[in-house]
Amino acid sequence: MIIPVEWTDEGVKMLDQRLLPTEEKWLMLKTYKEVADSITDMVVRGAPAIGVSAAYGVALGAQNFVGTNMADFEEEIDFVSQTLAKTRPTAVNLFWAIDRMNRTFQTAKADGKSISEIKQILIEDSKAIHEEDIESQRLIAKFGGELLADNSTVLTHCNAGALATGGVWGTALGVVRGAVADGKSISVIADETRPYLQGARLTAWELLQDDIPVTLITDNMSGHVMKKGRVQAVVVGSDRIAANGDVANKIGTYMVAVLAKQHNIPFYVAAPLSTVDLNCPTGEEIPIEERNIREITHVRDIQLAPEGIDVSNYAFDVTPNDLVTAIITEKGVARAPYSESLRKQFEE
Fold it and tell me: Which residues contact 19 (CB under 8 A, 6 or more apart)?
């Protein structure tokens, strides 16, 4: 069972995913700034995991406050929240978790709680966010697993497994695990996911841990394996889903969705409702993060591209809703029109 981030009495314990699969190293983060840096530097990644980590970061910032004045405490919580919010712009779970922690703070303050009591309340709510994430994954696994046929092969892009969430199930890989738990025979084709290689390094590693058959391919093989009939479904995660069902996910997802449409293969998105941004009308309004060009020009310390070459390094792309067969959340399976089905899930 993989739990990539957790709260401890010493601080926030986090698996350094940059080193996988060759090294399993755990970090003990003792300040909110260390948590923020870990999110920025992709020690932890994946929208749900970022949300959980941000909640723990707010709790850690509160715990480390040494003053006695409530106004100063509130100012510190606000500064901590702003620092964490600047780490990754695309994953909406980050902002969802920070907003929830701030609402918890305001409620506790309005109830007349002391600073020491509020510190404990924030710690407990961050733990609750983590527990709720794991439960939502279990339900996503249940609903999604029912969509996969026995003796089928699923193609995944990036890593949307336990490593990308609070742990245990995952979102896209949770769907696979849910089908396997139902007794179905499921295999996976994981594309490598350039430039950060989350598929090669992380998805393949996770599935090997669970003894789920997995074949690794390069990103540019996806169309070929679909044409050969080796793929019966595509399942991916998401970092933000717009109100109309447009899906932001790791760069390259749009390309996979177009290929799936061409080959009449269902394209499923698995994500908790915290990833759905009803305040974002369409994918056009989703901010797309651009990362350091070194991720493309180098693999760790090995240079691949000529010095001085112009590089674009978009971390995400947006898949239009007409390419999405269904969106699987903890409330069930949403289908088009998503502007109605997703909103209905929030109302249930």
Answer: 25
- Give this prediction's pTM: 0.94
Q: Tell me: do 145 and 132 sit in the same domain.
A: no
pLDDT of amino acid 1 = 81
Question: Which residue has tokens 């896209």?
Answer: 172
Q: Where does residue 237 rank: exposed (0-12), middle (13-18), buried (19+ CB within 10 A)?
A: buried
Query: Of 125, 239, 277, 317, which is the active-site residue?
Result: 239
Tell me, what's the pLDDT at 224?
Answer: 98
For residue 239, indicate whether it is catalytic.
yes
Determine the average pLDDT of the residues in 175-196.
97
Is the domain of 28 the same as that of 81? yes
Range of the domain at 222: 140-347
Give the pLDDT score at 21.
96
3-class secondary structure, 7: strand
User: How many domains does the structure of the chain reveal?
Assistant: 2
What distance in Å separates the CA atoms of residue 331 and residue 143, rounded to the nearest whole number? 9
**114 in the same domain as 50:** yes
Give dist(CA 94, CA 47) in Å, integer.
Answer: 7
Span 252-297, pLDDT tens digits: 999 999 999 999 999 999 999 999 999 999 999 999 999 999 999 9
Q: What is the CA radius of gyration of the chain?
A: 20
Examine the fold and report which residue of 138, 165, 185 is the final residue of a domain before the chain moves on. Answer: 138
Same domain? 249 vs 220:
yes
Strands 240-242 and 247-250: antiparallel
In 3D, which of 297, 57, 97, 330 has the Cα closest to residue 194? 297
Q: What is the pLDDT of residue 300?
A: 86
Cis peptide before 4 (omega within 30 of 0): no
**Spatial distance between the Cα atoms of 239 and 94, rounded to a whole number of angstroms:** 10
pLDDT in the model for residue 331: 97
Is the predicted pLDDT of residue 116 greater than 90, yes or no? yes
